[in-house]
Amino acid sequence: MLADGACLVAPVLHVGDDPHTPEAGLRPADRGLPPNGGGAVQAESMFGRQPVEIAPGAVHTPDWLSLDDQQRLVAACREWAAPPAGMRHTRLPSGGVMSVQTVCLGWHWTPYSYSRTTEDGSPVKPLPEWLAALGARAVGDPSYVPDVALVNFYDDTAKMGMHQDKDEDSAEPVVSLSIGDSCAFRFGNTEHRNRPWTDVELRSGDLFVFGGPSRFAYHGVTRTRPGTGDPATGLSAGRLNITLRVSGLA
Prior knowledge:
- With 250 residues, the protein is mainly beta.
- The radius of gyration is 17 Å and the shape is globular.
- The strands form 4 sheets. It has a 9-stranded mixed beta sheet, with helices on one face. The protein has a 5-stranded mixed beta sheet with strand order 2-15-14-17-12, with no helix packed on it.
- The chain is 10% helix and 33% strand.
- A hairpin with a 2-residue loop joins strand 5 (52-55) and strand 6 (58-61).
- The protein has one domain (65-245): Jelly Rolls (Sandwich).
- The chain is built from 2 helices and 18 strands.
């Protein structure tokens, strides 16, 4: 459980861009560079951390959430984490248990489907309108209405293997919000779990949206960086990740 104290708006650069070069703003392919080149992306420059297009349809926007936004989300996550239908380690069909802890809103996810109740029959918690509105603002489209959220809590050792978000009957974008400790986020390709991929550092307050040709790209978290979060968010340790999706389900 998430305990107390533990737990596209701007113009984007493309991977490898320097805002002072004539090639700034061109996609990697337009410059003869391989898209998703398999390297680590550094979005920091003399102008601060800039939005970066990691792949077509996949944009990392640093520092998108204000401190007030983060504090509100942390407080809400503590409420959502409490039983019934609270935070738990998801059991996989193989018998393994995921290292992250998860609570779902709107629809309850278990590998690899959605339902309106949890494994013990408790009704899933509703997804609040203000959170859906935050997702619409992230995408920049008021017609985007997410109806499911997965809230994942990472402790110091938790990871997330490479996977696709493909249990929805919708190809609408996925909105990912990060709070707390930073992490190494690996964004891959749509064909398989192997290279090419791009590693991105996601820090507290960062937004990552992927849709269009990147909607079903494999992605995961290889590690977190303990002690890098700001306790002012209300989360003194660990990482929260909130992903918003459109289920396409009735």
